[in-house]
Each structure stands twice: as structure tokens, then as C-alpha cells.
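Bumping with the actual sequence this time:
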Amino acid sequence: MGEPTTGAKTGQRTTGRRTTGGQAGQRTGENPGEGADRASGPEPVGGESATRLVRGPGLLLVWLYGVMSVGAVSRSVYQIATEFEHAPLAYTLSAVAAVVYAFITYTLVRGGETARKAALVCCAAELAGVLTVGTWTLADPSAFPDATVWSDYGMGYLFIPVLLPVTGILWLRKARR
């Protein structure tokens, strides 16, 4: 009764116990959804092993990037639709920031090694953008008649735009291990 056998019709292993109508490959007597070794969510594309990025500090990063995405998208859409001729460079840069934030949010949620690498590259590009635009707005304020998300290193956003990519890079490097 305790020896494993293979079912003739399904190829499913049994241990002599009655199955409970579970899925193929499921141990007999086990309810769907139970099982400590099961990963939740979809499998990463391309057969790569799942790298969970949304755990611990990664969850806070996803939340902050999500909030920044919504804020930057809302701001840039409104400004481009209503006042674009006033400060086209500033509003375009805010739209670029929105796209960067949204992409990083997506890659952090998606997980996997490829997504981790893409998010790492994007965080580095974001940091370069924040430092470039922040320095530019201090050196030549006349080039920006209105502020961007990254103006003055994100001072209008409590410096979150300069702290997020640094924190993101540190987290993503740690998640590799």
C-alpha cells in the first residue's frame, strides 16, 4: 500500500491512497493551492529562474515607484495638454520621468533575472537624468520656466527622485545574490 506506482492512464504517481481529483502531477490527497514548494504567480518568460524583487525593501520600492509613476504621469499629461508652449522642455522631461518610473515599477513587479537587469539599467539612467537635470536647473534656471520632477534634484518631491534610484540600485544588486 505504501509503494509509489504510476497510474496507467494519467502517468500520475500514487501511493495507494485514493486521489481527490487533483491536477496531474499533484500528490494524492493534496488539495489544490496547498503545497509549500509551489511558487505563486506566473512563471518568468524564457525559462529563467524566478528572482523575487517584491519582498522586504523591494515592496516599498514598488510602492514608491508606483506613486511616483501616477504623480509624474498625471502632472505631465495635464501640463502637456494645457500649458505645453509655456515650458516644453520641462514638461517633456516630466513625461520622460513618468515613463521611467512606470517601467521600473513594471520590472520590479514582474521579477526574474532579465527584469532585474532591466530595472538596474533603468535606475542608473534615472539617476543620471536626475543628476543632469538637477544640475542644469541650478546652473541655468532660465532654461526651465517651470519645474520638472527632477528639478533641483527632486526638491519639490522631498528629494525622492534622487533617493529612489540609489536605493533601487542597492536593492537590485543585493537581489542578485
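The C-alpha cells above came from a reply further down the thread. Residues 117 and 137 are 30 Å apart (CA to CA).
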